[in-house]
Amino acid sequence: MGVSATTHNKPVKPTGVTKRRSTLRRGSLRLRRTRSQNRQFHYTTPDGVTQVVKSNGTGPELLNDYTLTPSEFLHEPYPSTFPPGGVWPPRKASDILCALGTDYMDCVGSTCYTSRICTDYACTHTLSAWKAATSDWEQHFELRHTGSDRGIGVFTKRSFRRGDILGWYAGEIKPLDSIIGTHGGYLMEIELGDLTPRADAPSVYIDAKKKGNWTRFINHSCEADCVFRIMRVGGVRVMVVEAVRDVRGGEELSVDYGREYYGVETRLRCACGARGCVERKRVRGKGKGGSEVVGRWWGGMVCGFGIE
Ligand SMILES: C[S@@+](CC[C@H](N)C(=O)[O-])C[C@H]1O[C@@H](n2cnc3c(N)ncnc32)[C@H](O)[C@@H]1O
């Protein structure tokens, strides 16, 4: 998807004379334009017009990957759920989102739309294969403006069955204390180390505000058709989107952001319009600020360290 840089990354070799140098310059310009186009999201307006999702310089940039800045973790403590000797500070996302533990949770396998699940403890599935398998998302989903306060949402181009894994939540991996103030609902909290549920498990955010894939556009519904849950791809933990009921082609995908986000006592107003929408239960005058964290998902159980 956006990261098709391999094709475009070929160095353009200058071969000497002036005329050739001008070819190089044109080549470089073309290179930049193609890259930025690949990194943009497009959506359809209610009038059927295709538009680029506007960026004010801080995103959203289309990136079907995890990214991580090692220096942000320099002063973070070594996670208590990691065995001694792990890579710290993490150099890449798989160092910190490595799948650990005594019981091994299911691997999504190399492709998601079929929900092919791998239960082989020593499987060789890699995050790179997973990224490639999920890069054709536009064949299956489209971004469309809902024409309501919900803004842009994700709509299916085909049907899916309950239990299908539709994609994964990509973005920047960040320490919890690095996020200050409002964040617009683009944060996912994911635990580190052994995934056996533990109330005090250290965790990090997957932040899709500036960089992420199509799943960052999934809106909230009080009667959601999907959930986020933690699985693994080989030895790396991923937050997947799973259909919790059959979904017809053309339907909007949604998840439940949780009562801390759209609840009877939060400041934010839900516009999902579902019959069971929280707005129907709201007690007037009780609004308070809500949490900005979309959710906290306890995953299964895993083993293996630092594998990609
Ligand atoms: C993760 S983003 C989803 C993508 C977003 N609709 C967009 O256009 O970029 C979450 C934000 O979408 C909007 N949103 C999502 N679900 C909503 C709902 N049920 N009611 C009102 N606003 C919603 C809110 O502005 C929320 O902060």
UniProtKB/TrEMBL annotation:
Signal peptide: none annotated. GO terms for molecular function: methyltransferase activity. It comes from the Eukaryota. The keyword Nucleus applies. Residues 139-258 form the SET domain. This is SET domain-containing protein. The keyword Transit peptide does not apply. Residues 1-25 are annotated as: Disordered. It is found in: Chromosome; Nucleus. It comes from Bimuria novae-zelandiae CBS 107.79. Keywords: Chromosome, Methyltransferase, Nucleus, S-adenosyl-L-methionine, Transferase. One of its GO terms (biological process) is methylation.
